Amino acid sequence: MRIDSLWRDRDFLRFWSAASVSIFGSLITRTALPFAAILALNATPSQIGFLRLAELLPGFIVGLAAGAWLDRRSRRPVMVAADLGRAAVLAAVPVAAITGHLTIALLALVAVLMSVLNVAFDVASQSYLPVLVGRDRLVSANCRLTAASSVAETASFGLGGWLVQLLTAPFAIAIDALSFLVSAVLLRGIRAPEPDLAQAGDSATGNLFSEAAEGLRFVGRDPILRALAAANAGLALSFGIGMAAFLIFVNQDLGFDPGILGIIFGLGGISSLLGAMLASRIASLPLGPVLIACFALAAAGNALVPLATSAGIASAALLIAQQFITDPAYTIFDINQVSLRQGMVSDDLQGRVNATIRVTDVGGQMVGAILGGMIGDSFGARAALWAGILPLGLAALWLLLSPIRNVRTMPTFAVDQP
Predict the structure, then answer these.
(1) Tens digit of pLDDT for each residue in 172-203?
(2) Rounded distance, CA 302 to CA 320, Å?
(3) Which of 209-218, 233-242, 328-337, 393-402 comes out lowest in average pLDDT?
(4) Maximum average pLDDT range among 34-43, 158-167, 190-199, 330-339
(5) Which CATH number fits domain 3-188+210-406: 3.40.50.970, 1.20.1090.10, 1.10.287.3510, 1.20.1250.20?
(6) Which residues, in sequence order, are CB contacts of 108 under 8 Å at separation 6+?
(7) N or C, which end of the chain is more exposed by having fewer CB within 10 Å?
(8) What distances in angstroms separate CA 211 from CA 122, 202, 224, 353, 359, one per listed residue?
(9) How far is CA 216 from the centre of its chain?
């Protein structure tokens, strides 16, 4: 099937639409959940870090086992169930706000449950895509999914900030709950068959964890996958440190209102869309050097944020410039690294490999959230933002010293397990 036939593939269009709707709501919650803590509950940097930790720790704990579990069964029903579960969990936030029971502890519980369901959905989704479209169309499919995500980012962040101001953060989160219901309906309509991945001993917990360890060993033995895992961990560490302090810095230190911030963040969606469009156009360039360059650009872009001094035009320009430098870099890296590992790994290992990368990602964000909260409390939010740049430089160095630098093209077939 030709690569440009994706838009004529009914099942991919349903998958793409479900992802777009779900991401739209999720990004509203990404803005609204911390603002619910900051504006309604006067959260400190360490409490924001704790909330981020509550969102990450469960996914880190169950991630590897989830990958092994998903390698035993069809992925699409798991995605539908996760969507329905996420809708129910998020609905608790506006209900708590109405009844006067909204607390940091409740937001942390919501974050914990969402963490588990997000891991199940994300690992299942990445593992399902090669089955749905084939390995020869992975880059094209991931570009389309990322482009949709970028458009959703533009709309949701731009709208999310104003929804927080107009409806308050808890009720903005209700929109996310509805989006997951729409996503579940779309996914249920996919008719493409999945291969039978059932394995013997499905009920044996010990066997489950031994299979999870097999995925971990597979990533550890393969130098390409190992380098990708390390790079993802560095990126996640940087993100975790920065997110623990970013909203407090721009809202409290600089004085930007949520609505203005929503517009600035929405511009990042436009820049991500440009990155998604560029990703397919630069596919002819050597893959390894492109991945390394993405980290160097991201580090340079993030250095602009702590240079801002007040809620004025100059600071807004710095924040916008950061979006237009870092977002395309992140987008191009993500499309290519996800497609690379999806193309390298056989269907029966997709869940475990994707879960292993996810665990390194979540682990990096978790450590970053702790460090970001500690640095922010002790030295201020600006210092935490400066600290968050260092892991990006280290990740770029790791890729430069790894075999990734010699990778030129994207594989279209699974490599044999070593």
Answers:
(1) 788 788 889 999 999 999 988 776 655 544 44
(2) 11
(3) 209-218
(4) 330-339
(5) 1.20.1250.20
(6) 50, 51, 54
(7) C
(8) 19, 11, 21, 11, 15
(9) 20
